[in-house]
Structure formats: structure tokens, C-alpha cells
């Protein structure tokens, strides 16, 4: 199943495990790479640039397949040392980077000079077109169903993906609401060159999050997420739990960030993933959790997606076309 994405980025399957805070660690990324997909270490999960260098080296010890690093660039009162993290990526010889958050234009010359291909995550067509203009090699377009920050336009993937692919010339990775072979086939039909999955990869054997979190994802339905920070115009989709429900309730009465800051601290979300206390803080999960009913190995997941996608394309869809043409199938 080859696409412009697999050809350009040197991977076997058009499947991506995007960077996830506290989740994109070497053991998951290496398993994704060995399965023939593209995984990303999350740079800012590592406390320092030096720790990132060590994590990249640790991943290289586990796999000889291509993998990348995610660098999420967000406004902050005390921003991380982005230039130092960027230098750590370049000096480690990584050849694929996923950027997200703010415009990556200030970082692109450094990555390009080092021969690094860049995928930029976007939540709108206008942002994707701007990313193409500044020189990224591909975009990952996030529909409203996604975990994390879906933007403020509330456009779901069924509309956003074809709206993007009809205007962009570079490869497009479909993201948000995808967890199985049906989502892969649908994304390809909508014009995408591959799919990005976060929640689905988080719920695998090699994922470094606590088993209790994985079991909760399996138990949850597509209705078990909450949209927080809506009133602050910084919407985030997270799993429904005691904390996210409290945040939504406080926001409904009118709130400033200071009123909820103690509830949404990143350290509390890290506790969820590392200790398995699902009500310790907010934690990201997409609506695709309603499609997840097991905790496979990464290899089992990728193999299943590809084989079932081929069956859908050559079986059911081919049968529909043949039936329309009056051919016996």
C-alpha cells in the first residue's frame, strides 16, 4: 500500500504515530518503526535537550527503521529552550520532524539545512496552505474528532480532509477519529496519503502509559470525551473524568485560566499516565476511543489495519463497483 507519503518518507505503510506528551517514548516509537509505520518521539516529554539526545539513542538501540521527533511549539510565559531541542534533534541525525502548535517557519531553515523532512500538524486548510508556502514537506490535518487541540473551527475530518487535499500539493496525513482499517481506507478515499493515530497507539502493549489508562480507553465510548478551554478559545479534547467535568462546569459560569490552572496542570496529567489514577488530572483521548476494544501489540495493530484495508478495497468496494457494472461477484 504505497502512497506519496510512504515514498517521500521511506516507510512501508501509510500510518503515523504522532507525538504525544508523556507517551511518545522510545519503546513505543521503536515498535511502530519495526512494524513499518512512522513513529515520533515527543521532544518536550524529555526534561532537557540532553535527555532527548539520550532518548533518541535509546530508540536507535531498539530499531534500525526510520523514526522521527515531534517538536511542539506553543506560546508560553516561560517557553522551553526550543533552539536547544532543535539542535539536539539535528545533532542526533534524525531525518524526520513533526512540528505542531505555532508556525514552524523560524525552525525550518535549520531543519532544511540538515536534510530533515518536516511534517506540520494543522487544524484548518488555511493553516495547512500557509505551512506549504513556508516549505514543509507534508501536513497532518487534524479533524474536530481528534484528541488534544482541534482548533476553533470545529470541522470534522469527513469535510476537512478533502477540503485540504483538493488545495494542497504536498502529501496530506489525515488525523482525528481514525483507529482502524476503515478509517485508513476512508482517508485514502478522501485524498489523504496516510493516517495519523494517537489514541489508538496509546492503547497498545508497547505504549508506556499505565495499564489502567489503556483499559479505560477500551471501556470508553465515543461520547466519553470533554471539550475544555472552549471559553478561552484554546479548545482541547480530553477524556471525560472527574477533573475534566469540573473544568467544564467552572467554565460554564465564566472563568479565566487562573480559575482552572490548578486542575489542568501538566504534572497531574503525567500522574494519570504513569500511575494509572484516571481522575488525577486531565488526559487526552479522542472520539476514536469508541472504536477501540482491545490492547494489541503495535505489530498486531499495524498488520491488522493493512490486511483488513486491503480486504475492504479488493473485496467490499470492488464488489460494489462490479455489482454496479452488472458483473457477477
Automatic annotation (TrEMBL):
Gene3D superfamilies: Aldolase class I. Keywords: Flavoprotein, FMN, Monooxygenase, Oxidoreductase. One of its GO terms (molecular function) is monooxygenase activity. The keyword Oxidoreductase applies. Its EC number is 1.13.12.-. InterPro entries: Aldolase_TIM (IPR013785), NMO (IPR004136). Pfam families: NMO. The keyword Oxidoreductase applies. SUPFAM superfamilies: Inosine monophosphate dehydrogenase (IMPDH) (SSF51412). It comes from the Bacteria. This is Nitronate monooxygenase family protein. The lineage of its organism: Bacteria, Bacillati, Actinomycetota, Actinomycetes, Mycobacteriales.
Amino acid at each position: 500500500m504505497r502512497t506519496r507519503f510512504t515514498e517521500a518518507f521511506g516507510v512501508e505503510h501509510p500510518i503515523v504515530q504522532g507525538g504525544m506528551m508523556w507517551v511518545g517514548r522510545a519503546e513505543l516509537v521503536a515498535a511502530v518503526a519495526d512494524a513499518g509505520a512512522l513513529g515520533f518521539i515527543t521532544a518536550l516529554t524529555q526534561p532537557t535537550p540532553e535527555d532527548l539526545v539520550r532518548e533518541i539513542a535509546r530508540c536507535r538501540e531498539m530499531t534500525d527503521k526510520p523514526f522521527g521527533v515531534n517538536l511542539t511549539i506553543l506560546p508560553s510565559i516561560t517557553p522551553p529552550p526550543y533552539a536547544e531541542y532543535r539542535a539536539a534533534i539535528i545533532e542526533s541525525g534524525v531525518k524526520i520532524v513533526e512540528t505542531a502548535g505555532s508556525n514552524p517557519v523560524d525552525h525550518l531553515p535549520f531543519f532544511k539545512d540538515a536534510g530533515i523532512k518536516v511534517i506540520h500538524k494543522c487544524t484548518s486548510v488555511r493553516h495547512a496552505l500557509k505551512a506549504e508556502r513556508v516549505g514543509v514537506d507534508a501536513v497532518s490535518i487534524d479533524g474536530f474528532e481528534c484528541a488534544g487541540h482541534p482548533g476553533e473551527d470545529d470541522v470534522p475530518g469527513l469535510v476537512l480532509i478533502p477540503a485540504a487535499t483538493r488545495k494542497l500539493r504536498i502529501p496530506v496525513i489525515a488525523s482525528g477519529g481514525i483507529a482502524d482499517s476503515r478509517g485508513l481506507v476512508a482517508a485514502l478515499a478522501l485524498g489523504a496519503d496516510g493516517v495519523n493515530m494517537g489514541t489508538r497507539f496509546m492503547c497498545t502493549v508497547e505504549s508506556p502509559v499505565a495499564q489502567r489508562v489503556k483499559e479505560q480507553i477500551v471501556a470508553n465510548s465515543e461520547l466519553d470525551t470533554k471539550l475544555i478551554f472552549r471559553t478561552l478559545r484554546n479548545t482541547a479534547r480530553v477524556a471525560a473524568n472527574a477533573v475534566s467535568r469540573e473544568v467544564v462546569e467552572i467554565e460554564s459560569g465564566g472563568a479565566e485560566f487562573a480559575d482552572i490552572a490548578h486542575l489542568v496542570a501538566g504534572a497531574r496529567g503525567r500522574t494519570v499516565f504513569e500511575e494509572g489514577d484516571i481522575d488525577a488530572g486531565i488526559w487526552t483521548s479522542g472520539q476514536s476511543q469508541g472504536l477501540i476494544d482491545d490492547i494489541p501489540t503495535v505489530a498486531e495493530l499495524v498488520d491488522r489495519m493493512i490486511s483488513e484495508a486491503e480486504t475492504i478495497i479488493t473485496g467490499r468496494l470492488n464488489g460494489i463497483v462490479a455489482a454496479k457494472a452488472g458483473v457477477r461477484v
